Amino acid sequence: MRWWSVANFVSNAGTWMQLTVQNLLVLQITGSAAATGLSMSVQAAPALLISVFGGAAVDRWPRRLTAAVSQALLGTVAFVTALMVALDRLDVTSLMVLAAVTGVIATVDGPACSLLGNDLVPREDIPSAIGVGALVHQAGRLTGAALAGVTVGFLGTAAAYAANGLSFLFVASVIPFLRPARGAVKHVAARDGGTKDTMSVREGLAFFARRPRLLALAGVTGVSAVFGRNYQLTLAVLVTGPLAGGAGSFGTVSTVLAVGGIVGAVLGARLRRPSVRVVGALAAAGGLLQVVAGMSPSLAVLLVMVLPMAVVESVSDTAGTAVLQTDPPPHMRGRVLGVWGSIGTVWGLGGPPALGLLMELAGARGALIAGGLIIAGTIGAGHLLRERRTAVPRVSPVASLETAA
Question: Distance (Å, rounded) from C-alpha 16 to C-alpha 19?
Fold first, then answer.
């Protein structure tokens, strides 16, 4: 698990370095912010359309082999991009195609690598392993964004892509040497491709739809994703608008958000029994903190509120991921993650425009306050409805007949 965490840190740092450089590269080639947004959407689109098939592949194929091959393929795409940049052969069309290919491979790589980490630890330690993964992700994101500017400044854009390619190959080279701890649940791939009933995409969709816990988790995460969490958008407008700050002030806010995410990941790793109830309570608390942040009279007050907001969000995400990866039986987890990938992409693509429209109507403060109230109110109403439904006594037909007699 230590080796896997180191490999994931290196890979995450390389990925965030490439994402940062890719946005700058599109701007350099086209001079268009719209084209930059389009490149991000092109890379995310495959997750919306074929994540369920990627999840089914993860359930069907040996997990180690699947993760190693997908990492090697992602490394190949990064090296091809680096070569085209070095030779000055990369145009917008080529970049879009490479982004789409990366998105397709990621629909398999994402669930494969997530579940491979869980295969290395005993069942009771899976929530902690997920928390460690969240911590590694946050640390890699900070490191990658910082390295992007240094790498481009000293070695050029091609070097950033090449470094990301090397990070993928590092992960692929580590996978064959990973050894599960005693008590870890072994993943067994279906032989001969599995049967139609046990390995189909339809079965994965039906399983997700029949699980109230997963549906509730999807509802909580969805309302939080649309009306909150997009702090890079809402807080940027709040800081540079009503609070009269500049880019440096927003950079400080972003740093505090990142620190809070790391603290939250550490706390989330200590959860032993994560549940949808815990996720909902944390999400509602985050919504209320967002309301207070929206009423901040100064940047100093906002900074005080941003840290607990980020901590609560990170712990909630870690708990939700733990439920998502442990609730289904082992042979269904890849397909459940595939369904979740499609749902999450809908939120990721639809949330920012919806929040932007809310800010146009209500302003930055109004969007934060209204969004937080919607999150807390929706989750609270859902909890009350569930409690009322479970509190209604069920009377058996025999008892009803006896009472009538």
Answer: 5
Partnered with residue 122 across adjacent β-strands are 184
pTM of the prediction?
Answer: 0.80
| DSSP-derived secondary structure letter, 25 | H
pLDDT band at residue 196, thresholds of 50, 70 and 90? very low
Q: Give the tokens for residue 164.
A: 């990301």
How many other CB atoms are there within 10 angstroms of residue 298's CB atom?
11
Q: Give the C-alpha distances (Å, rounded to integers) separating 321 from 74, 343, 379.
A: 24, 14, 18
Q: Do residues 181 and 121 touch, judged by C-beta distance below 8 A?
A: yes
CA 26 to chain centre: 24
Half-sphere exposure of 12 (CA within 13 A, CB side): 20
SS (H, E, C) 326-359: HCCCHHHHHHHHHHHHHHHHHHHHHHHHHHHHHH
pLDDT at 183: 79
* Residues 11, 143 contacting (CB under 8 angstroms): no
